[in-house]
Write a structure and sequence with these properties.
CATH architecture of the largest domain: 3-Layer(aba) Sandwich
Number of helices: 9
Helix content: 25-40%
CATH class of the largest domain: Alpha Beta
Strand content: 15-25%
CATH superfamily of the largest domain: von Willebrand factor, type A domain
Largest sheet: 7 strands, mixed
Distance between the termini: 27 Å
CATH topology of the largest domain: Rossmann fold
Shape: elongated
Amino acid sequence: MLVLRPWLKPCVVLIACGGCAESGVDNAAVAVLADAGMHDASSGPFPGDSGVPRAPDTHCVTASFPAEPLPVELLVLLDASISMAEGNKWDAAVRAITRFADTASITGLSLAVSAFPLSLGDECKVNRYAQPLVPMQRTPDVASVVKQAFLEQLGPDGQTSPVRPALDGSLQYLRARAETAPFAQRAVVLVTDGLGNRCDTSDDTVLTLAAQAVAGTPALPIFVLAMPGGMQQSFLDRLAQVGGTERAFAITPEQGAEDALVQAMQATRERSTACAFRVPTSPDGQLIPSSVTVALHTDPTPQTFGLLDRPERCAGETWGFYYDDNTAPNLLTLCPAACNAVKASGAQVTLDADCLWKID
C-alpha cells in the first residue's frame, strides 16, 4: 500500500481482496473499502466479472508484482516558420530537443520529431505530416537520428505556421501506432510561437482537433510549449486546456530558453506516466477484477480509489479508477481527481496485489 512517510518514497498499490475472510483479512477493513465505493465480491459478481462460480478449493493468497509503468511515446511537433529564427528561438529549440532525446536516464521513453510547414506544395497535406521526419524510436538511441535530421532537413525557413494539418497528421500517426502497440501513453508536444492562417488553420479548427484528440480512444493529450515573442499566449493556453494539459508552458528569455524547454519536455514525460498502469497478472492464480481497489495511504488518513464501471463516472471530483475492459482488463486508469493527487504527491508507482484466487 502507498504510505507517504518522510523516509519512504510514496507509491500506488493495487489491493485485490476476493475471499479475504478465508485468508485472515480484517472484515472491518473490507467494509471500509466497500463504503468507499468498492464492490463487495461476497454479494455477487461485479457487472464486469465473468460470473463464473469460484471452486471450493480456491483460496486467497498474497502476491507481489513489479511495477509496470506504461512506456511513453512523445511526438515533438516543431514550428519551423520564419518567426522561429528570431531571438535565438530555433537554436534553443534544436539544442533542447537534442538534449532531451539524448538523456540516457529516461527509461521507457520513445521520441519522434516532426516539423511544419513542409516544403512548398506539401505544407497543407495532412498525410505528409502523418510521416514524421524522425520516426518513433527509444531514447537515447534516437538522439543521433534527431541530430542528423536537424543538420540535413530542418531549418526555420517556412513563411507560415499551418498548425491544423501538422497537428492532424501527427495525431493520425500516433493513432496508427496505438493500433499495433496499444499499451503506451502517447502525446503530442507542440513547440511554437503562434499559429498562422494557412491551410484552414484557425482557432476553431485547431481547438476542434485538440478536443477530439483528448476525448478519443486512445486519448492523445496535447502539450504546448509556447516560445517567447509570440502574440498568442492566451490562445496557446486555451489549446493546452482543451487538449487536456491545463495550460501552455510559457518559455521566457529570462529562464534561458534551452533549459526551460528541456524542463518542460521532462514535465510532459512525467505527467504522461502518472495515471495508467498495466493490470498485474500471475501464472499462480487469477486476479478477480472486481476485487481490486487502489489505495493512496497518506498520513494520517489513507485515501481509497474505488472501481468504477465506466470512465464517464469520473466526472467531477470522483476519486476512482476504471478498466479498459471490465471482463478481461489489461489497463487500469485513474480518474483525473485521483491522478492529480498522485501527481501532487510526486509518487513513484508500484503495483502490489495482496489477494488473488489460487486454485490448488
